[in-house]
């Protein structure tokens, strides 16, 4: 019990010594021609060198792309026609894990690239992609359409594809649950 009390007293003294005297706002302080950014852990006194502070500007440090590209949304009929007439320029990608495919099957002509365990797959060089998956990496010029079980992972995979330079990207939002509910053809894995 005495050791606990001593530890508490020591920690409260350390807290009093190390705590900043005044809270700092994230701001850009312009000092003449130089500018310094005061961090949250510093004290205001440490950021002020004298009365040289001319103005305080609040800044938001983020960027937004000027043109946000969104994947094309596919429905059951679109996927049905895609699976019945496959083309090397349009690739259907199932992003579920292999165990899920074994349990429920897959849409015919779909290839499997599991996004949860392999999120970097589309960023891999073609030879490493082939070594890992056993088939050629989809070309960035090809149209890639993603689906999963309920549409969440396929949305993430579509965004990853866009970030990795794929321009023709689609997402089957209904995914496997919609396909199964509407009686779409299944292929055993």
Automatic annotation (TrEMBL):
Which InterPro entries does the record associate with it?
Rhodanese-like_dom, Rhodanese-like_dom_sf
Among Gene3D superfamilies, the record links this protein to: Rhodanese-like domain
Gene Ontology terms, cellular component aspect?
mitochondrion
Q: Name one GO molecular function term.
A: thiosulfate-cyanide sulfurtransferase activity
Q: Which SUPFAM superfamilies match?
A: Rhodanese/Cell cycle control phosphatase
- Protein name from the UniProt record: Rhodanese-like protein
Q: Where is the Rhodanese domain?
A: 86-188
Which CDD domains does this UniProt record tie to the protein? Answer: RHOD_HSP67B2 (cd01519)
| Superkingdom of the organism of origin | Eukaryota
